[in-house]
Prior knowledge:
Layout (H helix, E strand, L loop, with lengths): L2 H21 L5 H36 L26 E4 L23 H21 L9 E2 L13 H6 L4 H23 L2 E5 L21 H12 L6 E5 L4 E6 L2 E6 L14 H17 L6 E4 L6 E2 L3 E3 L8 H5 L8 E2 L1 E5 L3 E5 L2 E2 L15
Parallel strand pairs: 2-3, 3-4, 6-7, 7-9
Antiparallel strand pairs: 1-11, 5-6, 8-9, 10-13, 11-12
Helix pairs in contact: 3-5, 5-6
Amino acid sequence: MKKSDKDYKKKQRRSDRRKLLLSSDRMTDKDMIHLLNSEIKALKGEIRNSVADEMTAAQIKSKIFNIADGEVEPPKWLLSPKKSSGKTLGIPTIFASDWHYGEKVFPAQIEFCNDYNLEIADQRIQNLVNNSIDILFNHLSNPKYDGLVFPLGGDMFSGDIHEELAKTNEMPMFPTLLRLTGRIAWAIKIYADKFGKVFVPVVAGNHGRTTRKPTHKNRAFDNFDWLLGCMLAREFANDKRVTVLVSDGTDINYSIYGHKYLLTHGDQFSGGDSIIGAIGPVTRGDSKKRSRESQIGRPYDTLICGHFHQLVVMKKIIINGSLKGYDEYAYAHNFPFEEPQQAMWLTHPEHGITFNMPIFTEQSKKTVNHKPLEF
């Protein structure tokens, strides 16, 4: 019998005994005092156990991952432009989500319009880093930046929440976790060398969860995306250029020059089809989140999310594409074809979001051979 089952039966017996005593005509004041003292003692024990459970995540962060105690906050350099940098273009955001690392896409099953495996994923990660740096420094005039925001928006792993994925993934979850952690750490180091400072907010998606069905309590703690974020936080704990903020819930709020963002994965938003796509469910979900955040004093300007594998840029919403690209699920549901791509934009100190450009991550069709990986 599990410990949780024993505890439940113990509580049930105590409750039944209490009801029996309270209904008895023989209950004396002394019996009542003894009963109440017993209940108080039992409740204190339950409270202690509850507090211990709530502390588990904080202890994991501080003791196992060597993440500093206390609440990590977005860095202060996001709030105002550096005086020494002169006229800045702002702070770029390179939005990483829906990589589904470890998944294998079978080209023959989708009319050969895409291919995906660990080797291709590694190449696309390298292309994401190289192409984003190339655009920001070689194709914009006066490329001065105050840093970089590199959100990890969830579903970084394929996961094994579905039987078909568990059977066809190229690698089990733990080796996949170690391999992807190294790839993302490489990207962050390159970005830190180039931009000087990097902020990495992390939220969990749905594919990285360890439970078959989505949960609400301890949602992030049972998710490999959360574990990935903690491992990256430990990796860069002594690098003052990098701040990794891992959400224990579904969302993260942060500001760039006063422009307020809310980062979420997007799996809370349901609905949509092959015609309306992600716009319907995300717009409805955004309306609910804006109402909730305003009620608790945290209004935001722009929602950014992933999940739908469809790059959509609107005035108040940015939905990310995917690194994986088109797959069997999208093909079977007749979703529009979309190339592997990730969103990138600039936040300006005075004008907010001023520049949007997707980062295409697939090799050029004219390229015969892949470039050697830099990992």
